[in-house]
Design brief:
By secondary structure, this protein is an alpha/beta fold. Helices cover about 40% and strands about 25% of the residues. The structure holds adenosine-5'-triphosphate and magnesium ion. The site of adenosine-5'-triphosphate has 11 residues, from strand 2 and helix 1.
Length: about 250
């Protein structure tokens, strides 16, 4: 299998703080890889660099072999790489279905989407609506399609973010803490859906997640970082038994 994502010697500074410090990692295609590390170790910063929100101070990012380094977020998104945020960013007054529709890649843009009247959508693109409904079924939100996003539970908001990423046609999805603040039953449901999406659609996932008690049984690969640097990378058993990982992360 090839690498969907390659991070090569990435450094991201905030003043004198080395938030990500000469980090090199790879994510194999069609796998679920999680990124772990103590608070402040640079996980979100790395996701922000990969998704184009921050420009790295040095190093390169490759997606399916193509160099994405320094591209703005919408260009990264267009290339097939979508991300979610640690705190969900949805269109709160739009419905669940509309939130998914807005994520369609050839959508003229979010400013345009914001100004749309509800009725415009329905006539706009029948094919897109059908695709959105299919995705809502996949992520388990079909029954709440006409609820406004602000009325969803925390777990449902995370699922809607995942649905939006799928609607963009992304082949690599970065999730920042998809089950934080979600009850254990729904958290397992979210990871089961991620597993299903990997198997049925061949989507690659790179996921920041603290809650290993839940995530561990679903993942193919773990990458551990601390102080912006790589600590360990390998299969779950290898990484969870790594002395440096135990000391810096699990033993805190
Ligand atoms: N925009 C910013 N400006 C300045 N410093 C920042 C910025 N973003 C992050 N940092 C700092 O960079 C370091 C890494 O932060 P980051 O948010 O990447 O950590 P994290 O691993 O995602 O932590 P958590 O598990 O708490 O989400 C921290 O010391 C943080 O305070
Ligand atoms: Mg974070």
């Amino acid at each position: 299998m090839g690498l969907a994502l390659e991070v090569r010697n990435i450094t991201k500074l905030f003043g004198s703080l080395r938030a990500v410090d000469d980090l090199s990692i790879g994510v194999e295609e069609k796998t679920i890889t999680i990124l772990i590390g103590p608070n402040g170790s640079g996980k979100t910063t790395l996701i922000n660099v990969i998704s184009g929100l921050y420009k790295p101070d040095s190093g390169r990012i490759f997606y399916n072999g193509a160099d994405l380094t320094g591209l703005p977020p919408h260009r990264v998104y267009r290339a097939g790489l979508a991300r979610t945020f640690q705190i969900p960013t949805l269109f709160w007054k739009l419905t669940v279905l509309e939130n998914v529709l807005v994520a369609k890649k050839d959508n003229p843009g979010e400013g345009f989407a914001r100004s749309l009247l509800r009725s415009t959508w329905i006539t706009a693109e029948k094919g897109a609506v059908e695709e959105a409904v299919r995705i809502l079924r996949l992520v388990g939100l079909a029954s709440v399609w006409d609820k406004s996003a602000d009325s969803l539970s925390g777990g449902q908001m995370k699922l809607l973010e995942l649905g939006r990423a799928l609607m963009s046609g992304a082949r690599l999805i970065l999730l920042d803490e998809p089950i934080s603040g979600v009850n254990p039953t729904l958290a397992h449901e979210i990871f089961s859906k991620i597993l299903k999406l990997r198997d049925e659609l061949g989507v690659t996932f790179f996921i920041v997640e603290h809650r290993l008690d839940i995530a561990l049984s679903y993942v193919d690969h773990i990458i551990a970082m601390a102080y912006g640097k790589l600590l360990a990378s390998g299969n779950p058993e290898m990484v969870m038994n790594d002395a440096k990982v135990i000391e810096s992360y699990l033993g805190e």
